[in-house]
Amino acid sequence: MNPINILVAQGGGPTAVINQSLVGVVLEARRHAGIGAVYGARHGVKGIVRDDLVDLGGASAELLEQVATTPAAALGSTRDKPDAAYCAAIFDVLRARAIGQFFYIGGNDSSDTVRIVSEAAQAQGYPLSCIHIPKTIDNDLMGNDHTPGYPSAARFVAQAFAGADLDNAALHGVYIGVVMGRHAGFLTAAAAAARQHPDDGPHLIYLPERAFDTERFLAEVQAVVQRLGRCVVAVSEGIHDADGQPILAQLGKALARDAHGNVQLSGTGALADLLCEQIKARLGLSRVRGDTLGYLQRSFVGCVSDVDQREARAVGEQAMRYAMQGHVAGSVAVLRTEGLGAHYPLIPLATVAARTRTMDDAFIAASGSDVTPAFLDYLLPLLGSGRVQTQRLRLPAVAPRASAG
Amino acid sequence: MNPINILVAQGGGPTAVINQSLVGVVLEARRHAGIGAVYGARHGVKGIVRDDLVDLGGASAELLEQVATTPAAALGSTRDKPDAAYCAAIFDVLRARAIGQFFYIGGNDSSDTVRIVSEAAQAQGYPLSCIHIPKTIDNDLMGNDHTPGYPSAARFVAQAFAGADLDNAALHGVYIGVVMGRHAGFLTAAAAAARQHPDDGPHLIYLPERAFDTERFLAEVQAVVQRLGRCVVAVSEGIHDADGQPILAQLGKALARDAHGNVQLSGTGALADLLCEQIKARLGLSRVRGDTLGYLQRSFVGCVSDVDQREARAVGEQAMRYAMQGHVAGSVAVLRTEGLGAHYPLIPLATVAARTRTMDDAFIAASGSDVTPAFLDYLLPLLGSGRVQTQRLRLPAVAPRASAG
Q1: Phi-psi region of A172 (alpha: psi -120 to 50; beta: other; left: phi over 0)
Q2: Hey, where's the site called Important for catalytic activity and substrate specificity on this chain (chains A, B) (predicted)?
Q3: I need a labelling partner for B369 at 20 to 30 A (CA). Which of A31, B225, B326, B394 fits?
């Protein structure tokens, strides 16, 4: 039997642990006798059609382990979505390179790409195992308890809001932090992990799972300011009104779209600025500050969940094992076991492809502007070990002077 | 001799290590026999005039050590600047509480407050030691080699750009990160520490020490994109044109000012968005993303330089010792010694107060859009131990197929 050449690539927005999955595939491949060349395509499917490949089989384990702990797709990424002509070009290269297994690490758009390639292989009778390996900071893959990339991004968001809340407690006013996640609020919701005491922020959390009403938002901010003298708010970039229109569209800006039809919400501070201006104008508050957490959420060096690292490595290894067991198509899922462990079944691509999981109602408070304790029970074990604990200086006030003269 | 009551407060924008200095004062005070009550004023001078004090003498060492590693002013902060009436109200409380030593932890605005209080004490013959303890992420205090708070913020900026550069390398396009610092470019310049290889970003660095010319900026971005297929840019929030007008003012927005006359530049993503729009419109590039690093730079939990922590503690301890030695007015400075150490002379308040240090010409590249190796020699020892090293996947491309079909 000829050895099987394999091809691995990365698609969509990178994460802090996406290279763990890449290295998981490559090192696991070395444990199987039937594997020949291990190719990496640069910039996802774009690198396949361009025959722009690197030889991962020749990389030292030392280099790979260093790459594994480096954020952002080491092979490069793309948001290209193959159509029929694109698919034909992919198969030209797969044939020429005698590829028998294709691994694509990405989110729901990338899993749709795997589905398209897998169906094309079947249609033309080309023998190809197509395995999707999950990653997304949005945590929005169907069929998964959670998704590699999310725990590290969630840890970043929690630490960002923990610090922003302390900063706001020192100088007061209103602080708005805008968090990534166009349809799913999981990452925004992770801001809740910043809280240690009842008066800690974020005091309000707005998720894309609930329609955003500007009047109610202003009333809720005002109520918190009246109660605490300050307010910290976590807002998803994907908030929209009851008609599904993005709040950002209220700016009247033409919103750019990518090849998958997704509106560009990230890479601009416009939503935070819009909300701050509303608060200043309508509530008459002066110190109102907005941050957009931006690309740091998925790429910041030095903020990673060790749980996430382990699981991201495991889904890469499992993908390779499933391919060697003769599975021809599927997506590796992450399901939680009792305790802190996880298991990784192979689920149908159709379960994941181009579908979006959003937060369960049980995770969202009745108010619509907070999470539930059940969500924190879900989230906290994912954030990993070694989180820095903060401490407020909670001391009694010195008694007033007898005669304040 | 009656014991001396002391008062400590924090002013201006918080940092990751400002509480180290607070705890340095409080714990050092416990080593001196002549000290009575140790008061903390909440929210800086505002807390003094309101007689809003806490008893730091009653805080346990365990609590204080936890507070020391927590970012953002634990006592609360303010940007109030005392005028004559405000000063009179301060002295009412100082007299009533029999305060003999006043410690104020802050930047150049706060040191000006210390100068005003100190001169008022002399004018009215009130015996008061007034010691300014330095902190600022901007690193803009005269008479100092560097300032507590800067190394940790610089580490955050370096790690943010290291990750953003990897993300940009994966998906290409142009990335602009806007960094705090209204007049001094030190923090923006710290982005240069993200680089490991010649083609790593940030590829361009724009500092407030040089006039910003939009045409030159666009040409420089275009040149990098032509060379590398991508470009990462670090921009100071304080960039201004040759007439000194903030580039942000080109938006035509009314810019808010604080009590010290400073224009509000932070807490908005407007500058990044403005620059991104220019690049899209004028260079015809599609994937252009802007982040504004915002308050995370000074408050993010879990990103701190251990060098910074040690020095921030030391300036608090030294301030207390100077006061006990009978020094009545001054600012504790940080000067570098051979090796990695520092020493902390007491310098005149007038050296620091309301003055702004900017980057030496020797730290800025002749191009005006980068730093020099001398700046990196200055910066790198401050960033502390335990920085995460990243690794790009640098592998040779697989040779093209003999017949490409």
Answers
A1: left
A2: 109
A3: B394
pLDDT of amino acid A354: 86
CATH number at residue B14: 3.40.50.450
Q: For residue A122, what are the domain limits?
A: 4-148+304-352
CATH number of B279's domain: 3.40.50.460
Check whether residue A20 and residue A88 sit in a common domain: yes
Q: What is the pLDDT of residues B233-279, one digit of tens each?
A: 999 999 999 999 999 877 545 556 666 666 666 667 889 989 999 99
Number of domains observed in the structure of chain B = 2
Interchain proximity B290–A268, CB inside 8 Å: yes
Question: Which of A32, A75, A34, A69 lies closest to A55, judged by CA?
Answer: A75
Q: Would the CB atoms of A256 and B58 count as touching at under 8 Å?
A: no
* Nearest residue to B267 (alpha-carbon basis) of B190, B176, B180, B154: B180
ipTM, interface predicted TM-score of the complex: 0.95
Catalytic residue among B80, B109, B112, B138: B138
Which of B67, B160, B300 lies closest to A159 in CB terms?
B300
Of B164, B291, B300, the CB nearest to A160: B300
Which residues are B240's β-sheet partners? B246
Q: Is A289 on the interface with B (CB under 8 A)?
A: yes
Q: How far apart are CA A369 and CA A147, in angstroms?
A: 24
Pair A120, A163 in one domain: no
Annotated binding-site residue? B44 = no
Radius of gyration of chain B (CA): 23
Min mean pLDDT across B203-207, B280-284, B400-404 is at B400-404
* Residues A124, A27 share a domain: yes
- Selecting among A80, A109, A138, A165, the annotated active-site residue is A138
- Residues A94 and A203 reside in one and the same domain: no
Q: Which of B8, B257, B395, B401 to mutate to test the interface with A (most CBs of A within 10 A)?
A: B395
B140 and B229 together in one domain: no
DSSP assigned state of A292: E
H-only helix segments in B124-204: 150-171, 186-189
